[in-house]
Amino acid sequence: MASHATTEHTLTPGEIAKPNTGWIWRVFGILVLITAVEFVFVFLMHPSTLRNSIFIVLTIFKAFFIVGEFMHLKHETKGLIWTILVPVALLVWLLVALITEGSFIGEVLQNMFK
Amino acid sequence: MAQSTTLQSPAAAATHDAPRTGNWDGGNEPFKASYGKLMMWFFLLSDAFTFAAFLTTYGMIRHKHEVFTGEAKDFVFSTRWWPIPDHVFNAFPGMGEANVPLGFVALMTMILILSSVTMVLAVEAGHRMDKKDVQKWLLWTILFGSTFLLSQAWEWSHFIHGHAEPTIMADGTKLFGANLAMNQYGPVLFADLFFFITGFHGTHVFSGVCLLVWCFIATTNGTFEKRGHYEMIEKIGLYWHFVDLVWVFVFTFFYLV
Asked: Which pTM was predicted?
């Protein structure tokens, strides 16, 4: 995407560079669009695993743009990117593991006296 | 090896000790990020652990409960199954009992995303040392952040007081709204998780607004201009975007799924 560095032409002391905000509004547009798409799915689709998966994928897209562009992580060094991503990936593992566990506990409780 | 860091203006550097440049005496910047920004990233990572714990708890408890299997239009609140969110969050301020499923939360989401945008604009203005623009965008961010907080206060108040139609329990008691011990929407833990997750997020927004107000005062006093850089705005900005990011996840897992 757009480079974030301000233009390199020499500024006279006291002069303020022109704002470079096109990329910010573009990312904003993408975030609004994804949220709008989520609402389309809420009202046009019946709840199902597929619908939930669509929501999760769209959420990850939004997270990518917020973290990558707004928090500038995409433009940091590879080391920093991995330092942030690896622990978060482990958290996702924890999430999936405990949700599976939850389903199992539910099944046991609901069938206990059958 | 003498790299000029982006943090110090030549004027500021001249007043300090000679810059440290060796790899082992503090002159080396890990990941080419300043100390402050790096520590903010690590703090945010640890904060992500907290919110991940909340969402994991939510996922596990929700999956433990029964799912309502009928048609969405036949859905009624019951402690037997987990509620469908668009039946719980369907009120809009000033519209009485009109059914606006997820309307208000959509507005809140937009407000928070917008506040994130004005925050980046403030950071961008800081890079250009444009004090006026930094002030302008910080004020917008504070405005949107406070609006979000007020919206959440309304949302909580409505959730606590409940819908006009009570939920009638098996023993005939009529139940309105919610507290930590019982609620009209579904299992007890549904309301508990709502209070804890959105409450914890709201606390973060509140801290963010306080930090932004402090940043605005410091900018106005020229603190950052004298320092030669607006890195503080960037660090607070990282925090603010993280709060927005958490909301994106809360929004998906609490309101959509």
From this structure: 0.87
B127 touches chain A (CB under 8 A): yes
| Residue that is written with structure tokens 């929501």 in the block | A55
> Inter-chain contact A71–B241, Cβ cutoff 8 Å?
yes
User: A76 and B242 in contact by Cβ < 8 A?
Assistant: no
How many CA atoms lie within 13 Å of A75's alpha carbon, on the beta-carbon side? 11
Ranges A89-93, A99-103, B17-21, B174-178: which has the least confidence: B17-21
Q: Which of B61, B117, B245 sits opposite A24 (nearest CB)?
A: B117
Note whether B57 and A99 are within 8 A (CB): no
Alpha-carbon distance values, B150 to A57, B144, B157 (Å): 30, 10, 11
Query: What's the pLDDT score for residue B250?
Result: 95
**How many whole angstroms from its chain centre is CA B77?**
29
Which residue of A6, A50, A66, A92 is the best one to mutate when testing the B interface, meaning the one whose CB has the most B CBs within 10 A?
Answer: A66
What integer pLDDT is reported at residue A48 of this predicted model?
Answer: 87
Q: What ipTM score was computed for the predicted complex, to two decimals?
A: 0.86
List b or e across B120-136, with b for residues whose CB sees 16 or more CB atoms inside 10 angstroms: bbbbbbbbbbbbebbbe
Other C-beta atoms closer than 10 Å to the C-beta of B69 total 6
Across the range A3-27, mean pLDDT stands at 75
Structure tokens at B245: 């990011």
pLDDT of residue B62 exceeding 90: yes
Which of B29-38, B47-56, B195-204 is the least confident region?
B29-38
CA–CA min distance A102, chain B (Å)? 4
Our CA-based measurement puts residue B117 at a distance from the nearest CA of chain A, in whole angstroms, of 7
B168: contact with A, CB 8 A cutoff: no
The verdict on B56 touching A (C-beta cutoff 8 Å) is yes
Residue A2: is its pLDDT beyond 50? no
Nearest Cα residue to B169 out of B69, B82, B79: B79
